[in-house]
Design goal:
The protein has about 190 residues and is mainly α. The chain contains 10 helices and no strands. The longest helix is centred in the N-terminal third of the chain and has 20 residues. It is globular, with a radius of gyration of 16 Å. The termini are far apart.
Length: about 190
């Protein structure tokens, strides 16, 4: 994969903070892949491309979704999550990514999905704890959970708790999928 071409495209299509976040996510994803015995290069690529459509206008995101993608109505409740399916689309169409594991990890890095693979989990987590733009104190708490038994699920559960709290504080709708994932993680962590 031509990382120089990808980084050039990202630099042209993301704002500075999002670009720095993207680089941090890619590095963090590679680190987590190493820790969990997963493919480090695939994780790095997924991290690089996870937010490639983040700075597209809402109108452009909606147009790409309408013209090319099958996105559930419940996912359309919050414009902040529209970039995830579009980023997977751009990864495939613009950069030729065909690996379904990478595309799925990009596709679900904001909302998540039921029964995520470990690869999908690390991309989801890397996005939330990367060191370039995320709060180090918060990130360290998530990393502490990850060293425990069942650590990936414990870390995910904590992230979902924080997401739900944040959505409630801001009076935003909560996708039913988020509640389903939260409940499933509760079961996985408590059993």
């Amino acid at each position: 994969m031509d990382y120089i071409k990808i980084k050039k495209w990202l630099k042209e299509n993301l704002n500075d903070e999002r670009y720095i976040h993207t680089l941090g996510t890619a590095d963090c994803a590679r680190e987590l892949a190493h820790k969990y015995g997963l493919d480090e290069e695939k994780a790095y690529l997924a991290g690089l491309l996870h937010d490639c459509a983040k700075c597209f206008s809402t109108e452009k995101l909606l147009q790409i979704i309408h013209d090319n993608l099958d996105v559930e109505e419940s996912e359309m409740q919050n414009y902040k999550t529209l970039h995830a399916p579009v980023s997977a689309y751009i990864a495939e169409k613009e950069f030729g990514v065909k690996d379904t594991e990478i595309l799925s990890a990009i596709r679900w890095h904001t909302l998540g999905k039921l029964d995520m693979s470990d690869f999908e989990k690390i991309i989801f987590i890397a996005d939330k704890i990367e060191p370039n733009t995320r709060d180090p104190e918060y990130s360290s708490k998530i990393r502490e959970l990850m060293v425990e038994d069942n650590g990936l699920n414990k870390a995910l559960l904590r992230l979902y708790k924080e997401t739900i709290k944040s959505l409630c504080k801001r009076n935003l709708k909560i996708c039913l999928l988020t509640i389903e994932i939260y409940n499933k993680l509760q079961d996985l962590v408590q059993n």
